[in-house]
Amino acid sequence: RKTLEGKVALVTGGSRSIGAAVAKRLATDGAAVAITYHGSPEKAAAVVSEIEAAGGHALAIRADAGDAGAVRAAVNEVAKTLGGVDILVNNAGIALGGPIDEISDADYNRMIAVNVTGVFVATPEAVRRMKPGGRVIHIGSSMVRYAAFPTASLYTLTKGAVAGFNRSLVRDLGPRGITVNTVHPGPTDTDMNPDGGPVSKIVGPGMAIGRYGKPEEIASVVSYLASPEAAFVTGADIVADGGFTA
Ligand code: NDP
């Protein structure tokens, strides 16, 4: 029996990169998986096809993480279509920013909407439907531990908000048998932060293991936290960063 058989997982921002890897991994573990996406419908459809070709069950819903109404509707659709929500992975995120005195109000508002409000809205909507054994897993960032380069203050503000939310939620959700944890990836080879791209020139030499992470290496940590074996782990900040911030 697969670890997540009979479970329903929702991965926000699952069309590409880390979110897509998480969706595929949870499907391999046996969960029915819904993903949300915003700008990449073809890639979202490809993730669904890949999961279904492997014998899994998947669903893609267009929902801008920065639009609270769309996020609520998406969780509702998942619950209706797949029969509940057992695992929520708050992955959708963007990285607008710049020097601290040059960040526009528009960029600030969009960052808060997607990286913070999206998480804040999806979480209660999902946990309302969770039975004991439910899982909330946030994707934070190793930037909350180590500021490796300038221009990321706004990004780190949003990830720090998620880390604080994570910590306090354990008291609300623990008595209900639901765990809540944050995985903080270090530099991981994705569209947002490609190995060989401008950020990698700065952070690459700091990787203790001598290379960037792969999306699948973040997905495997999420897989563990989603599993029944992780029932005693809640409120944790799990850093998966190849030793970058150690
Ligand atoms: P990518 O930019 O490569 O992919 C982002 C994913 O999120 C895409 O599937 C995208 O879908 C989705 N997304 C973005 N905006 C929205 C939105 N408004 N509504 C719905 N979906 C959205 O990012 P990564 O995979 O690198 O990052 C994933 C998470 O990991 C983020 O929270 C990021 O902050 C975090 N992280 C990444 C690190 C890295 O080094 N890569 C390091 C630390 C943390 P679509 O194209 O369909 O809009």
**Looking across the biggest beta sheet, what order are the strands in?**
3-2-1-4-5-6-7
Q: Which architecture name does CATH use?
A: 3-Layer(aba) Sandwich
Counted by DSSP, the helix tally is: 7
Got a strand count? 7
**Low-confidence regions:** none
What's the CATH C level?
Alpha Beta
The overall pLDDT average reads 98
Estimated radius of gyration: 17 Å
Structural class: alpha/beta
| Strand/helix succession | EHEHEHEHEHEHHE
CATH fold assignment: Rossmann fold
| Helical content (DSSP H or I, runs of 4+) | 40-55%
For the record, what is the CATH homologous superfamily label? NAD(P)-binding Rossmann-like Domain
Characterize the biggest β-sheet: 7 strands, parallel
Q: Provide the β-strand percentage band.
A: 5-15%
* Ions, cofactors and other bound molecules: NADPH dihydro-nicotinamide-adenine-dinucleotide phosphate
Note the gap between the termini: 37 Å
What does this structure look like?
The protein is an alpha/beta fold. It has a single domain (8-240), classed as NAD(P)-binding Rossmann-like Domain (Rossmann fold), CATH 3.40.50. Helices cover 41% and strands 14% of the residues. The chain contains 7 helices and 7 strands. The chain has helices at 17-28, 41-53, 68-82, 105-127, 153-173, 198-203, 215-226, and strands at residues 8-11, 32-37, 58-62, 87-90, 135-139, 179-185, 237-240. A 7-stranded parallel β-sheet has the order 3-2-1-4-5-6-7, with helices on both faces. The model has no long low-confidence stretch (mean pLDDT 98). Bound molecules: NADPH dihydro-nicotinamide-adenine-dinucleotide phosphate. Residues 13-19, 36-40, 44, 64-66, 91-94, 114, 139, 141, 185, 187-188, 190-193 line the site of NADPH dihydro-nicotinamide-adenine-dinucleotide phosphate.
